[in-house]
Design brief:
Rossmann fold, 261 residues, seven-stranded parallel sheet, alpha/beta, 7 helices, single chain
């Protein structure tokens, strides 16, 4: 999502005007693109961060340039009390919560026979347990939201639907998140809709030499759309679930250019 260059580009009357969104891991990369997209659509946006305070502060400034309120809260997503306190801080700051985007996650490659119990637990703590705890803490406020209904959008992965031999713990954690999303959707209806965006290969930045990693070219060649995805592609899918009919729930939406076909 491009950042505004002038006040004329800011939209205070977008489809999410008056609503509040919380994006975990919103300081950088895909999370930042999601936060910017929601702000550009009129939402006030809170983001969580843990070790990226400078990036979080810069992102808050970029969000505020859309003439919305923005807020960053330091959160340890492995700690249930930290999560509860962060959700409470968002409610204290904005008075409501309409949209939760569980974006923060861990990605790691490892040979299956070499994955340690600690690696396994850390992966599930980040990719499955944290979204569960965050949603659990947020759902009372999402149920109480006025207007278009509460929304949860989880960020899954193509690896949760297709086995990757060198990412067993990652794939398993995202597969669990996909099922958790559908369980949440069934449990928390009709007040809250819950959906899951499932990205494929997403190019998130440049390497130290200022170029795209050549390994990405291999995936682009395998992708029917002949390119890799961008954070903005994922953000657009999140915006769809944030604004679509509330009747749409329990869905997994692949954003992969056809790579999973």
């Amino acid at each position: 999502m491009p950042e505004p260059e002038s006040r004329e580009l800011r939209d205070a009357s977008g489809p999410l005007a008056g609503s509040t969104a919380l994006v975990t891991g919103g300081a950088r990369r895909i999370g930042r693109a999601i936060a910017l997209q929601l702000a550009a659509s009129g939402a006030n946006v809170a983001i969580t961060y843990r070790n990226s305070q400078p990036e979080a502060e810069e992102t808050v400034r970029a969000l505020a340039a859309f003439d919305v309120d923005a807020f960053a809260v330091r959160t340890d997503l492995t700690d249930a009390e930290s999560i509860r306190q962060s959700v409470s801080a968002v409610i204290e700051e904005f008075g409501r919560l309409d949209i939760l985007v569980n974006n923060a996650g861990l990605f790691e490659a490892a040979a299956l026979e070499e994955i340690t119990p600690e690696q396994w637990d850390r992966m599930f703590a980040s990719n499955t347990r944290a979204p569960f705890l965050m949603a659990q803490a947020a759902v009372p406020y999402l149920r109480a939201t006025r207007g278009r209904g509460g929304r949860i959008v989880n960020i899954g992965s193509l690896g949760g639907s297709h086995p990757w031999a060198t990412h067993a713990h990652y794939c398993a954690s995202k597969a669990a998140l996909h099922m958790l999303s559908q369980t949440m959707a069934k449990t928390w209806a009709p007040e809250v809709s819950v959906n899951c965006v499932v990205p494929g290969m997403i190019v998130q930045g440049i390497d130290a030499q200022g170029g795209i990693d050549p390994a990405y070219a291999h995936f682009a060649e395998k992708t029917p759309m002949r390119r890799n995805g961008t954070p903005e592609d994922v953000a657009a899918a999140v915006l769809f679930f944030a604004t679509c009919p509330h009747f749409i729930t329990g869905q997994l939406l692949a954003v992969d250019g056809g790579l999973g076909l």
